[in-house]
Amino acid sequence: MRIIRAKDYDDMSRKAAAIIASQVIMKPDCVLGLATGSSPIGTYANLVEGYRKGDLDFSGITTVNLDEYKGLSRDNDQSYFYFMNHHFFGKVNVDPERTFLPDGTETDSDKACREYNRIIENVGGIDLQLLGLGHNGHIGFNEPNTVFEAETHCVDLAPSTVEANKRFFASVDDVPRQAYTMGIKTIMQARKVLVVVSGRDKAAAVKAAFFGSITPQVQGSVLQLHSDVTVVADEEALSEL
User: What are the boundaries of each domain within the chain?
Assistant: First the structure.
């Protein structure tokens, strides 16, 4: 595991975007695993700027997102499809036919998860997976558990995750209580993993995930077993190390 110290959120975003940009330049038809939430917004902004300057070409890439809320349609402004279109897909030359997310409108959880597993297999797996880190150490929506779930599954969101996400909704009652998420096995099979973490409120999670015991109670801790992980974190997120 390689840890890159960034001065602040903007510096973290620039450094993370440079790593993704290198992947795209070196392999123009790569498969990127993408994340949502506040942590990667700056990373996407830097990638968009690289595209606008003519330095980056996303026309050959394929993307698979980590997760999607169950029950939200793609036109819902809190869906992760909407998020990705707003922050990245709609601002670069990525082919919409090669951007994939779990189907949040599919009420049959087994069917939705089975279909998403098939998509990831058909695109040949993930070259670089971008991750954030939750306050409880979750990656994707893999919440603290007694086991590491292998593949795409439907998860009940932890109260702490609902609380953290309520800022994006009109009220806490509007926050979905379930989501479809890639499993730990799928994430661990990515050839490279890039984690972005910012803020003092994530410092305890960073310490537990990357320097604590490997346990499903801190799902991110499993990344200690991956052979190619880069963590880009700002000074505040690294303050407990």
Answer: 2-234
The percentage of residues in the chain with a pLDDT greater than 70, rounded to a whole number, is: 100
Shortest CA distance to 64 belongs to which of 22, 36, 106? 36
Look up the CATH architecture of domain 2-234: 3-Layer(aba) Sandwich (3.40)
Angle at 141 between CA 135 and CA 142, to 5 degrees: 90
Residue 136 catalytic?
A: yes
> Strands, E, within 14-57: which ranges?
31-34
pLDDT digits (tens, 9 = 90+) for 154-179: 999 888 888 888 888 888 888 889 99
Decide: 153 and 178 in contact? Cβ < 8 Å. Answer: no
Specify whether 143 is catalytic.
yes
Residue 108 is among the residues annotated as catalytic for this protein: no
Q: Which two tokens stand for residue 236?
A: 């505040």
